[in-house]
Amino acid sequence: MSRFFGRFQPVRMRMCFGVEFCLIAGAVFLAALIRFSTHGIMLSKGAPYLPHAGLTALVCQVCMYYADLYDFRVGLSDRQLYGKLIRALGAAAVVLTVLFYALPPLTIGRGIMLLSLPLAFALLVGWRLCYRHLQTMQQFRTKVLILGTGEEARKLAGELANSKPPGYEVKGFIGHEHEIGKRVL
């Protein structure tokens, strides 16, 4: 874990944030390519869209943060994920529209935002479902060693074992209340 804005952030959350930033920015580039494909836009000429794609991704992710899509302690059902993501992207569309109106040089281009938001939705849903599957795999679980063997330690181990999503694996306990090798749970 590392500090970000004075708080410790797990590597998983930073990785998810980075991948989603790239997916949203990629959706903006893809929308520009689709929108201006008749005008012969090339990927090498996509450099002017880089700040716009970054701004769009940042605004979308701030809205996703406030929609609690980066609270990985809560397991979301598919329906909750779709609903929160639609609300977050809708709020991002409103914020971006106000920004584009207030600061015209930030405008992406005609029709690009309209195309990029559904593309971003599809990419983000696919990523989140893949990420959820990765969290259930044994290789990606965080190993936990609990200090203590009392009632609180057993409750903590039970909560970690039953957490949604299952991202933790209790490897053992350290304490002096029980004999070595005696089962605590």
How would you portray this structure in words?
This protein is about 55% helix and about 10% strand. It has about 180 residues and is mainly alpha-helical. The protein has two domains: about 140 residues, no CATH class; about 35 residues, no CATH class. The chain has a two-stranded antiparallel sheet. Strands 3-4 form a two-stranded parallel sheet. The chain starts with a strand and ends in an 11-residue tail after the last strand. About 15% of the residues are buried.
Proportion in helices: 55-70%
What would you call the quaternary organization? single chain
According to DSSP, the number of beta strands is 4
Q: What is the topology, as strand order, of the major beta sheet?
A: 1-2
Mean pLDDT: 81
Features:
185 residues; mainly alpha; 2 domains; two-stranded antiparallel ribbon; 56% helix; 10% strand; elongated; membrane; transmembrane helix; Polysaccharide biosynthesis protein CapD-like domain-containing protein; transmembrane
What is the fold's blueprint, element by element?
Blueprint lengths: L1 E3 L2 E3 L1 H25 L14 H17 L11 H25 L9 H25 L5 E6 L3 H11 L6 E7 L11
Parallel strand pairs: 3-4
Antiparallel strand pairs: 1-2
Helix pairs in contact: 1-2, 1-4, 2-3, 3-4
Give a brief outline of the structure.
This protein has helices at 11-35, 50-66, 78-102, 112-136, 151-161, and strands spanning 2-4, 7-9, 142-147, 168-174.
